[in-house]
Amino acid sequence: MNEIAKEMNDSLAKQSPLFSYMLSDFGKEIYMPKGIIVQAAEAKQLAKKYNATIGIAKEGTEPMNISSLKGFFNNLKTGEIFDYAPNLGNQDLRTKWKKKIVEENKLLKGDAQISTPVVTSGLTHGIMIVGDLFVNPGDELIIPDKLWENYNLMFEVRYGGKVVNYSLFNENLTGFDTKALDTVLKNSKKEKIILLFNFPNNPTGYTPTKKEVDEIVSIVTKYADAGKKILVVCDDAYYGLLYEKDLLEGSIFSRFAGIHKNIAAVKIDGVSKEDYSWGLRVGFITFADANQSADAYKILEQKAGACIRSSISNCSQPAQSIFANILGNSEYTEEKKKKYAILEKRAVKVKEIVYDKKYEDCWDVYPFNSGYFMCLKLKGVVAEELRVYALKQYGVGTIVLGDDLRVAFSSVEFEQLEDLYDILAKCVRELRK
Question: Do 305 and 370 share a domain, yes or no?
Answer without folding.
Answer: no
